[in-house]
Design a protein that fits this description.
The complex is a heterodimer of chains A (176) and B (161). Chain A is mostly helical. Chain A has two domains: 47 residues; 116 residues, no CATH class. Helix content of chain A is 85%, strand content 0%. Chain A is built from ten helices and no strands. In chain A, helix 6 runs antiparallel to helix 7 and helix 6 packs across helix 10. The longest helix of chain A is centred in the first third of the chain and has 35 residues. Chain A is globular. By secondary structure, chain B is an all-alpha fold. Chain B has a domain of 103 residues. In chain B, 85% of the residues lie in helices and 0% in strands. Chain B contains seven helices and no strands. The longest helix of chain B has 36 residues. Chain B starts with a helix and ends with a helix. The chains are: A mainly alpha (176), B mainly alpha (161).
Chain lengths: 176, 161
């Protein structure tokens, strides 16, 4: 029963796609084709991310992580959050499980958010793609706007989330 | 291509870990599997949803509504499309380049790319599972607003408006 409950969202999307096929066969079939493609992509991209986060969880102690990225880690913590986020590959949903490990290890909240921001938009492999597809001016302008933007968004979010909410998010990360 | 790099890094660290401590490595793999299994239902749902959305909004449709003349309304629409869809970068950037060639404006493409990467409406269920409703929604709203800033600056610098 809990199994069914966990997959509720997936089942709903499956039903929607089924209905779509009945309404418009062409679009419905295309939806399944794209899903199959994304599924293959997910199976390909996800394994190393999770292996790395498992290793991170086991090998790097909470103390080390807190020292480098925890409260009082200052500029070093921010820079590290940027570098780790930017060095990654994979879609944004790959960042969340790693963020959970960060929180378990006592990484400062604003640094977790900077990491998410960096992963979402300053990824180095993506930057290279952008550079070749949209040109140097476009890619560099966007990067230069994004770096302060990510930090700003992280701090705004921090100021809106009170200590109680923050603690709840950290407690939740323990269970994931 | 980038994924191979991730594989190489993961395998290198895994080998190093195994060499140093077999038991810890096993524990790491168990943790990796547990985290994956935990989030799998959300992943599957998101992927299916993306399939439906991408099938409904194709490149042709997108380029029709975000031309250079579309102004801020076009910027808003581009950002909204970017926010809803979830296209991998190696498809998104060539698509964006194609849209530019077909008459989309720089400002609109700036908004589209920015929202595409930073805002994730369809991945929201995954995000909420990790960060809770309040933070997830706020992060996405701020990122959405931020894509207008990016659009404006890209329009000024690259488009020369």
């Amino acid at each position: 029963m809990t199994y069914l409950n966990r997959y509720r969202f997936f089942i709903v999307t499956l039903v929607i796609s089924g209905i779509l096929i009945l309404i418009n066969r062409e679009i419905g079939i295309r939806a399944f084709e794209i899903t199959g493609y994304s599924f293959k992509e997910m199976l390909f991209i996800i394994p190393p991310i999770f292996v790395l986060l498992g290793l991170l969880d086991v090998w790097i102690s909470k103390e080390t992580m807190m020292k480098y990225m925890g409260e009082g880690s200052g500029l070093r913590g921010i820079v590290l959050a940027f570098i780790i986020g930017s060095a990654a590959a994979g879609p944004l949903y790959g960042a969340f499980p790693i963020a959970a490990v960060f929180m378990r290890k006592g990484v400062k909240f604003s640094n977790v958010l900077i990491f998410i921001g960096a992963w979402s938009t300053t990824k180095i492999p993506m930057f290279l793609f952008e550079l070749s597809a949209l040109g140097v001016k476009f890619a560099i302008t966007r990067l230069l706007v994004n770096i302060p933007g990510i930090i700003l968004i992280a701090y705004i979010l921090c100021s809106f989330i009170d200590k109680k909410e923050e603690k709840r998010i950290y407690d939740n990360a323990q269970t994931l | 291509m980038n994924s191979y790099i991730m594989y190489i890094i993961a395998i290198l660290f895994l080998a190093l870990s195994y060499y140093k401590d077999k038991k810890k490595t096993k524990m790491a793999l168990k943790k990796a599997w547990k985290s994956f299994e935990n989030i799998l239902p959300q992943f599957l749902g998101v992927i299916m949803l993306v399939g439906v959305l991408l099938a409904a909004f194709d490149a042709e449709f997108i380029s029709k509504i975000i031309g250079e003349q579309s102004g801020w309304a076009g910027v808003f629409l581009s950002a909204a499309i970017g926010a809803i869809t979830l296209i991998p970068g190696f498809i998104a950037f060539p698509t964006a380049a194609l849209l530019l060639q077909n008459g989309a404006g720089y400002m609109q493409i700036g908004a589209f790319v920015s929202a595409l990467m930073m805002v994730g409406i369809v991945t929201l269920p995954v995000e909420i599972k990790y960060f809770g409703k309040k933070l997830s929604i706020m992060r996405n709203v701020l990122a959405f607003l931020f894509s207008f800033v990016v659009a404006f600056i890209i329009g000024k610098v690259v488009g020369g408006i």
